[in-house]
Bifunctional NAD(P)H-hydrate repair enzyme (Gemmobacter lanyuensis), 517 residues
Amino acid sequence: MTELLTSAQMRAIETAAISAGRVTGLALMERAGQGVVDAIQTTWPGLCGRAVVFCGPGNNGGDGYVIARLLQAQGWQVAIFALAPPATPDAIAMAAAWEGPSRPLADLAAADLQGAALCIDALFGTGLQRPIGPEVWQPLALARRAGARIVAVDILSGLCADSGQVRSLGGYLDGPADLTVSFEWAKLGHVLAEGGQRRGAFRVVPIGLSEEPHPDGVVRLVTAPGAELDKAQGHKFSHGHLLVLSGGPGKGGAARLAARAGLRIGAGLVTLGCPPAAMAENATRMDAVMLTPLAHAGDMVSLLADARLTALCLGPGFGLGAGQAAKLAATLRARKPAVLDADALTLLSRDPEVRALLHDQLVLTPHGGEFARLVPDLAAQMANPPGRGPAFSKVDAVRAAAARLGVVVLLKGPDTVIATPGGQVQVHAALGDRAAPWLATAGAGDVLAGIIAGLLARGFRPDRAAAMGAWLHVSAARNFGPGLIAEDLTEALPAVLRGLFQAEAGAGVSASSNPPA
Ligand SMILES: NC(=O)C1=CN([C@@H]2O[C@H](COP(=O)(O)OP(=O)(O)OC[C@H]3O[C@@H](n4cnc5c(N)ncnc54)[C@H](O)[C@@H]3O)[C@@H](O)[C@H]2O)[C@@H](O)CC1
Ligand SMILES: Nc1ncnc2c1ncn2[C@@H]1O[C@H](COP(=O)(O)OP(=O)(O)O)[C@@H](O)[C@H]1O
Ligand SMILES: [K+]
């Protein structure tokens, strides 16, 4: 399952299926409840004992009443605590079918939680449209302190299903849910921002909607590349020539990392272009990467005119002077595929005339700070704590930035978001069995820029190069593991490629996709 839905998209699918008579809301709710109970058993086989179920007023609460009934039928001792009476027809019906104890959540006392093995959080799901107060999150915090495992129905209450941001007043509970069980498709709030960090073990269970038609504009998770990444027969120029521009003496490390990554990912040739004063330093550090002196933007003319030069990478350790701005402008005027990172992004944000030269063969790879310099209004809107109504998520911000700038934008992080100028969005989620916290190390971003630039040089489309780059980068980090430094990423790439091609040649199925669960 590679789609990531918004709550509106999920609602639209559900409403269409119900209105067409293909399913009833009650049947969906029953399957959702059953899915949660099954997921609890799979996660903690044999667990049984006392459970408290916190129910909200909407259909998320409705799921809670189903879960209470099914747990009780399995021998659990269950008590329901309701934040408010059920308010939707389906939740009212499911509450009526519950024959056990039910009390107001406001009456919850520490004694009610003693010995509870489970706390089912069915307070709010995809319908959360405004911040919750302490009366909602404090009982969850209390249950956690009492030692109960928190099971979030659909999503941990207080997280926005569209942005992953916390919507809470007066604090929020510490830490993640122990288990989150969502229905049919993961939602954006399960991978973006805090949502990715707070989902705990994550399962998506079927509720019978998988064949329903999807609305337009669905965001997709980046999955493993396939055989397309392998090298076809040919000579080195068949696989492209990448030019990486570097800064002056003592500043070349970042560009060298990018250049080596471009070579490792299969560009036929990689040249590092540096100021003449940095030639000696770079020559002692590079063998397979070629070197060329580039004192001024004018020195790039013949290189840029050469059709065999298929991509560029500008930014890592580049510098922020007038000379660098001129080289950036010359590159953009040549309209070749390129990755713009680091200092190139800062130069862009300073100079509207250079920004006017952007074109659709470019990939911009900002981190959060660079993104805020490039598109301050969008970054501010994204950072605002969501109040009432729909949130402005990282997906919304990156989609808007790509449309405004007319380039592919990749905004980095454990939740890497990639958008095209046309509005297509992909997310690479470095979570769960794809978590890569060791990537938070100096120079990791330079390697990512080099990988993507190498893929551009090989002829991949900018959005495809960006998505494959994000996947390969995290896979390389995971392949190396703890202790990773940026240099290790390039050296781990061959094993990652070998694994991919072996998986492809084997079952014909990728062994290492990036599933939501
Ligand atoms: N969409 C689907 O296909 C399915 C949805 N189901 C469940 O239904 C849930 C969505 O149900 P709803 O749309 O009823 O939404 P919720 O149950 O998430 O909450 C909506 C209710 O809470 C109120 N509310 C929202 N924010 C509040 C706040 N901060 N403080 C107090 N009240 C607040 C709303 O006015 C509304 O009454 C899903 O998360 C899922 O658990 C499942 O039953 C199965 C199928
Ligand atoms: N916790 C994390 N999980 C997954 N990826 C991460 C994490 N922290 C950082 N990264 C990745 O590491 C890279 C860091 O890039 P960047 O911030 O530009 O650093 P630098 O400029 O030092 O190279 C990005 O690709 C980012 O997505
Ligand atoms: K919930």
